[in-house]
Amino acid sequence: MSVSVVIPALNEGPTVAQVVEAVLADDPLEVLVIDADSTDNTAFEAARAGATVLNWREILGTPTIPGKGESLWRGVAAARGDIVAFVDADLTSFRPGMITKLVAPFADESIHLVKADYVRTFGDHTTGGGRVTELTAKPLLRMLFPELAHIRQPLGGEYAIRRSTALTLPFVAGYGVEVGLLIDVASHLGTSSIAQVDLGTRSHNHQSLEALSSMADVVAATILNRFGHDIDVLQRDPLD
Fold first, then answer.
1. Is the pLDDT of residue 128 over 50?
2. Which residues contact 147 (CB under 8 A, 6 or more apart)?
């Protein structure tokens, strides 16, 4: 079972190298940093740490559309592994061994998606992070998709999916990509195809309320779209 790690990155020069180094310690088939036109030293730092850096425009040869999900979609297209693991580039707490834990459940052939479970820090506090998760995603999932209410980090950027499965699914272009994939896998393959793995604590750079409000809009629109409401969500069609 080969593993490709895809790290979407946009101006994450201060943190991307340590994330790449932690991932490489688990000896995956490849580590791909998908650089969405960073204007800082992200590409240099990622390459220096040992990653293969691909500008998102180099993959598939089609014009890009804004959003994290676009980088993940293109990362799946570029990946060669049986399993694709996604890791955010702004983490300050990613450690060696986490990729190994994240992909372990795929030994069971019925598992198609593995979500990381962790405690979200907030500044100097050991809890309190994940404001969009707690105030937008989880309430809507409890109401509309109660079978997914047990997923503790539905928006977490650390997760893994069988590439063969990822190729058959649409990817929301923006920050709704995680919850969109979660709902789609459950809808197509059942909730029993989704596993969770405890990865301890997650720390990353926190964004302003203005930025979080924009994320919440996309997350809410994605959940409502998947429930059947006539709400447009910008997304990429399946690669397969």
1. no
2. 186, 191
Distance between CA atoms of residues 238 and 4, nearest Å: 19
> What is the pTM (predicted TM-score) of this model?
0.92
Spatial distance between the Cα atoms of 192 and 74, rounded to a whole number of angstroms: 27
Q: For residues 4 and 83, is the Cβ–Cβ distance under 8 A?
A: yes
Give the list of residues 6+ apart from residue 190 with CB closer than 8 angstroms, or none: none
131-158 confidence digits (pLDDT tens) = 899 999 999 999 999 999 999 999 999 9
Identify the burial level of 146 via C-beta atoms within 10 angstroms of its C-beta, where 0-12 means exposed, 13-18 middle and 19 or more buried.
exposed
Q: What tokens were used for 112?
A: 């198609």
- Predicted local distance difference test score (pLDDT) of residue 203: 61
Confidence (pLDDT) at 119: 83
- Name 25's Cβ contacts closer than 8 Å, sequence gap at least 6: 96, 97
For CA atoms 72, 73, 74, 79, give the dihedral sign: positive
CATH of the domain at 180: 3.90.550.10
- 92 lies in which domain range? 3-236
Query: Number of folded domains in the chain?
Result: 1
